């Protein structure tokens, strides 16, 4: 039977996997050896399965690897999948020949221990190290029957303080009771200072942050504003008295609350005429009075014939096409007998500078249409001066 097993002794319940490297440090990626690439870490792992819960993990050396000497590295997986930061538990050389580990060299299956011991490192286990620590110095830490350290002789001297420490309240009382105190930071007493200031019976404010001179205040204090300052010397109670039961305010000085109601008289003059114009029909609906209707147009002014004539005109307007409207607009004379359409053509010819010199003495300039098939207008410039357009 081929000897291909990778055996690992580790903590039961661990999640382990292996990697194979050749003599140049390249890593087996499942198909070939390649230069190490952290991004391909998941391609390098060889699964190791624990046998029951005994702490023995078994994997299979890849059969596709050619004969040679290789190194098997075992990692303890920390997360949900293999990652470049996983802890390496150990390394083991693995001579490989004819699809199995080479027995000719005297090497069996690759066995990797959980804690490899290297030259120069301590061989003591954790219990031995703890015993050595507790044994020295002479005043060692006291332990109970289960080996746990007890709170005795913690300072290692005979002058250990066993007095109960003072409470936070007693420390605060001592600080505030001291005759002289030096505060190195006021970051935590700002709120207390503000509260003490505003709760003090008499306060004197010696400065404001206002940057306004007396001249500025005097310039803003107009005669009208100064007159209003006389109202500031009265108590609020003398101004009004709110009656919560009636939801009203009784004003002591009604002169202060007068409003300009002159505009209301004009409104009232108009609304008073409505009494002669509308009336209640007895069912809550208002209608024009007989007197108001007497001023309406006479029935003879709104005959059926006149209404039909109006409708006929409107109907005719509805039947006019957009083209007809456009034609009528373009055929409208805008300058003597020149229509809007002609004026637009003249302007286009002049702007496009499509001009032909018909004569030089006098100078005659013919402005042509866009197709150059007709002269739209001509400008004559005699040498004696003047200009004519035809």
**DSSP E strands, number:** 20
What general outline do the C-alpha atoms trace?
flat
CATH architecture of one domain: Sandwich
Strand content: 15-25%
- As laid out across the biggest beta sheet, the strand order is 9-8-7-2-5-6-1-10
Using the coordinates shown, work out and report the CATH topology of one domain. Immunoglobulin-like
Biggest sheet overview: 8 strands, mixed
Just give the CATH class of one domain.
Mainly Beta
Low-confidence stretches: 103-110, 113-121
Instruction: Please identify the structural class as seen in this structure.
Output: alpha+beta
Portion of residues within helices: 25-40%
Q: How would you summarize this macromolecular structure in one to three sentences?
A:
The protein has 390 residues and is an alpha+beta fold.
Can you describe what's shown?
The protein has 390 residues and is of the alpha+beta class. Among the domains are: 5-112, Immunoglobulin-like; 322-390, no CATH class. Helix content is 25%, strand content 23%. The protein contains eleven helices and 20 strands. It has helices at 126-135, 168-177, 190-199, 214-220, 223-228, 236-239, 262-271, 290-294, 304-318, 322-330, 340-352; strands at 5-9, 16-21, 27-28, 33-34, 46-50, 56-60, 68-76, 87-97, 100-101, 110-112, 240-243, 248-251, 278-280, 286-288, 333-335, 338-339, 355-360, 363-368, 375-381, 388-389. It has an eight-stranded mixed β-sheet with strand order 9-8-7-2-5-6-1-10, with no helix packed on it.
Topology of this structure?
Elements: E1 5-9, E2 16-21, E3 27-28, E4 33-34, E5 46-50, E6 56-60, E7 68-76, E8 87-97, E9 100-101, E10 110-112, H1 126-135, H2 168-177, H3 190-199, H4 214-220, H5 223-228, H6 236-239, E11 240-243, E12 248-251, H7 262-271, E13 278-280, E14 286-288, H8 290-294, H9 304-318, H10 322-330, E15 333-335, E16 338-339, H11 340-352, E17 355-360, E18 363-368, E19 375-381, E20 388-389
Parallel strand pairs: 1-10
Antiparallel strand pairs: 1-6, 2-5, 2-7, 3-4, 5-6, 7-8, 8-9, 11-12, 13-14, 15-16, 17-18, 18-19, 19-20
């Amino acid at each position: 039977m081929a000897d291909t097993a990778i055996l690992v002794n580790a903590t039961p319940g661990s999640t382990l996997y292996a990697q194979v490297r050749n003599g140049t440090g390249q890593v087996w990626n499942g198909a070939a050896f390649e230069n190490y690439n952290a991004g391909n870490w998941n391609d390098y792992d060889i699964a190791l399965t624990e046998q029951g819960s005994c702490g023995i993990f078994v994997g299979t050396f890849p059969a596709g690897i050619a004969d040679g000497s290789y190194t098997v590295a075992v990692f303890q997986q920390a997360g949900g999948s293999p990652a470049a930061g996983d802890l390496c538990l150990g390394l083991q050389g693995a001579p490989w020949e004819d699809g199995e580990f080479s027995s000719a060299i005297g090497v069996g299956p690759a066995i990797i221990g959980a804690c490899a011991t290297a030259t120069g490192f301590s061989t003591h286990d954790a219990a031995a190290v703890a015993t050595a620590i507790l044994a020295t110095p002479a005043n060692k830490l006291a332990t109970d029957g289960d080996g746990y350290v007890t709170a005795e002789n913690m300072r290692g001297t005979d002058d250990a303080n066993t007095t109960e420490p003072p409470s936070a309240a007693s420390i605060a009382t001592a600080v505030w009771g001291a005759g002289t105190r030096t505060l190195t930071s006021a970051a935590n007493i700002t709120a207390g200072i503000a509260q003490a200031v505003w709760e003090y019976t008499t306060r004197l404010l010696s400065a404001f942050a206002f940057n306004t001179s007396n001249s500025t205040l005097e310039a803003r204090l107009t005669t009208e504003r100064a007159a209003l300052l006389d109202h500031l010397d009265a108590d609020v109670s003398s101004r009004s008295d709110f009656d919560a039961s009636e939801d009203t305010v009784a004003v002591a000085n009604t002169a202060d609350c007068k409003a300009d109601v002159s505009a209301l008289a004009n409104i009232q003059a108009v609304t008073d005429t409505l009494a002669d114009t509308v009336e209640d029909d007895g069912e809550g609906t208002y209608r024009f009075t007989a007197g108001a209707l007497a001023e309406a147009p006479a029935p003879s002014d709104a005959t059926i014939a006149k209404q039909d004539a109006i409708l006929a005109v409107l109907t005719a307007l509805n039947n006019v096409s957009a083209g007809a409207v456009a034609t009528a607009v373009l055929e409208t004379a805008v300058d003597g007998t020149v229509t809007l359409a002609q004026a637009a053509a003249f302007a286009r010819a002049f702007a496009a500078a499509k001009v032909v010199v018909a004569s030089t003495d006098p100078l005659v300039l013919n402005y042509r249409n866009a197709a150059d098939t007709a002269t739209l207008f001509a400008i004559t410039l005699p040498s004696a001066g003047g200009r004519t357009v035809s």
